[in-house]
Amino acid sequence: SGAVDRVDSDLGRMEAVKRLKGVEDRRVGSEVFDELTLKTLYKLANSGYLAVLNGAVSTGKEANVFKGITDNDEFVAVKIYRVATSDFKKMQYYIQGDPRFRVRTTNRRQLVQAWVNKEFRNLKRALEAGVRVPEPVVARDNILIMEFIGDDGEPAPTMREVPPDDPERALELIVEYMHRLYTGARLVHGDLSFFNILNHSGEPVIIDVSQAMVLDHPLAMELLERDIKNVVRDFKRLGVNVSEDDIRKKIKKE
Ligand code: ADP
Fold first, then answer.
1. 60 and 96 both lie in a single domain
2. Residues of the domain holding 160
3. Engineered SS bond to 129: which of 106, 180, 190, 205, CB 3.0-4.6 Å?
4. pLDDT of 87-104, one tens digit each?
């Protein structure tokens, strides 16, 4: 009912476009919705991926996340990368060693597009390996649409904001996901901490896999170690006794 209440049942395409545009005018600076981003949003609306863009979930450094509603009245998360202010250097640094992406470009928009594709494919790979991440729906230009993690349109908080009630169990799950990511998907998250794990009614959901890299990327092992350190630090704060060695062994076990 939540979504239905918010969407007129006879919402037409043009109306959808107007409402998408309304978001630009009322809620966020035009910085996010440059002309090409608006065009891409319209295309996504016309392809049936999106009926309404309804409120900002998060305004990050490189991307904004919005709550969207589909033609079928389902919530989706719409992650829109800003092209103008994206961290070009970082994206190049991470994407260069990845054999899946042979991007040799100095074009910002192309690089962001490759980055969004990378996030989409990483989500798919993680999902296939049994890691709880948002299911990706579509990636186009600088926009990624994925499963909305939350209840009744209320986004789940991060584990940083709302720590898990049962930290021991959360730790076990997260280490299992790191293991599946490593041995199954053959990826390292690379920015893992409670900031990038949502607490969905007690269930950890790993997000923001855009920078996740394949195991033979030259940075992979260094970033795996950083992920392990962050996870140990965050759980120690909750009083869980866990060592980096413990976690490393579990992640790498065959
Ligand atoms: P950034 O790289 O800008 O930090 P994230 O992917 O980490 O982008 O998302 C930023 C915030 O948006 C998250 O902390 C979370 O609050 C929210 N968010 C991201 N993805 C989803 C999702 N699939 N469902 C619900 N909320 C999400």
1. yes
2. 156-252
3. 180
4. 777 888 788 778 788 776
